[in-house]
Amino acid sequence: MPKSKSYDFIAIGGGSAGFNAARTAADLGQKVAIVDSGAELGGLCILQGCMPSKTLLYATDVLHLAQRGKEFGLKIPRAEVDMKALHRRKKKIIGEFAEYRVKAMRSPRYDLYRSRAHFTDPHTLALSDGQTLRAKHFIISTGSKVSTPPVPGLADTPYWTSDDVLELDHVPASVIVLGGGIVACELSQFLRRIGSRVVLIQRSPHILKDHSPAASEAVQQAFRDEGIDLHTDTQIQKVRPTPTGVEVVFLSAGKKTTRRAQYLFNALGREPNTSGLQLENAGVDLTPGGRIKTNRWQQTSAKHIYAGGDVCGPHDIVHLAVSQGELAAKHAGGVSKLQPLNPDLLLNVVFTEPPLASIGRSEAQLQEAGTAYVSAEYPFDDHGKSILMEAKRGYVKVIAEPTKGRILGAEIVGPQAGELIHCFSGPLAMKATVFDLLKAPWYHPTLAEILTYPLEDIADQIRS
Fold first, then answer.
1. Contact 144, 311 (CB under 8 A)
2. What is the pLDDT of residues 388-425, one digit of tens each?
3. Closest C-alpha to 51, from 3, 89, 81
């Protein structure tokens, strides 16, 4: 007979959602297990996502500034990447992050199982090592995997995924990137800055299509100025391998276009990683898009089973996955007076150059809902600190309720956007107004000071 153990709470997947759900459940005094079948422990963010990519992106930001030394009155004769050294640094940093997470997961607070799991019934998991686990509550947090869309020839053509790009220890001569989302854009700019010839092919009219057209245009222009061969509003007709690499044939502005490169990078998106879980045995339903269907408490169609992170969405964002995991564990543990996650506080950052960040509700969302609002924006090319930094692309936009000025959202494209957007996090959560923010001191000269200009503009609109 297979060995069987029982728990109060089991996390299937030890990434951002699963680990934080397990941690929260343990804090509530529950008996907790984590089941993770990954080759390494740590989850996507630490091992193959946020942390390695941002380590590389920051390094090439420094490289790019050094190469622009003349603009700042500096003599920097030569600045170039040392890919083997950059790769070693990334491995060291990520190793330290992963070691900390592994140590936490191997603590006596949890039982850790390094196996694949599938449901045999709503309360039972069968593990690939022959063990059987039962639990009162589960969270499914198995993340996502690279998808292979039905692009003609793609499945038969060797291609890189983001994992391959993050592991590079040399400069590839040329790369064709398929896709225009966050991963495609961030890593296309990384590849260009280390010295690769980059072709970026996006199907939609704009890259970063989940953001405003104005924000996308600012990043697109920066890409083109840096030498990325960018094509938007395309239709890929054929992908095929060649003796020297890869060829992509596509329609661009109605014209048949061909591009060739040494390598192909498939950045066309990711899909929920649910294969093999046998969710049907547990009564867990999926959405038409393949995500696990959840309610506002992260419960699936089987109410004792929760889901969090990329596997359910609706956004593949780490801080959201962490919050989903914590909420699920608290709800399963019977914590009173819980509040569901507020979608109006959605925070998003894209680490391109210029970076792009947004929080709250966008103008497009407000217009679609028929919600009245006022907005104002101010450009970085008319702001003292950004001018002296030679970081003049982009703008700050603030969106507010039209009678009392309560902040509804904000969008920043420009220097340190990912840091500046947090100036709105607390005020938005606290339902503050533009008048509340204008009571605060804003130091001169700082980048943050630029936020006062659209705030003052909206205040004037409301007063008039």
1. yes
2. 999 999 999 999 999 999 999 999 999 999 999 999 99
3. 89
Contacts 24+ apart (CB under 8 A), 169-174: 169/83, 169/84, 169/87, 170/83, 170/84, 171/81, 171/83, 171/195, 171/196, 172/196, 172/262, 172/263, 173/197, 173/261, 173/262, 174/198, 174/199, 174/245, 174/260, 174/261, 174/262, 174/263
Mean pLDDT of 426-444: 97
91: Cα separation from own chain's centroid: 20
Task: Estimate to the nearest angstrom the gap between the alpha carbon of 341 and the chain centroid.
Answer: 18
Residues 171-201 have pLDDT tens digits of 999 999 999 999 999 999 999 999 999 999 9
List phi, psi (to 5°) of 139: -125, 130
* CA angle at 257 for the pair 254 and 258, rounded to the nearest 5°: 160
Beta bridge partners of residue 416, listed in sequence order:
none
Work out the burial of residue 1: count CB atoms within 10 Å of its CB; fewer than 13 is exposed, 13-18 middle, 19 or more buried.
exposed
Token code pair at residue 144: 């996502």
Report how far residue 365's alpha carbon sits from residue 442's, in angstroms, rounded to the nearest whole number: 30
Angle formed at CA 119 by CA 115 and CA 123, multiple of 5 degrees: 110
Alpha carbon separation from 122 to 4, 80, 131, 157, 375 (Å, rounded): 15, 56, 16, 40, 49
246: helix, strand or coil:
strand
With 0-12 CB in 10 A as exposed, 13-18 as middle and 19+ as buried, what is 280?
exposed
Q: Where are the beta strands (DSSP E) in 67-183?
A: 110-113, 117-121, 124-127, 132-140, 144-146, 174-178
Determine how β-strand 4-12 pairs with β-strand 32-35.
parallel
Identify any residues that bridge with 398 across adjacent strands, giving them in sequence order.
376, 410
Find the DSSP H helices in 68-122.
83-105
Contacts for 390 with CB less than 8 Å, ≥ 6 apart = 68, 71, 72
Cα separation, 193 vs 86, in Å, equals 13
**347, 425 in Cβ contact below 8 A?**
yes
Strand order in the sheet with 245-252: 234-242, 245-252, 255-261
Nearest residue to 20 (alpha-carbon basis) of 338, 330, 336, 335? 330
Domains and CATH numbers, the chain: 4-146+271-332 (3.50.50.60), 154-268 (3.50.50.60), 344-463 (3.30.390.30)
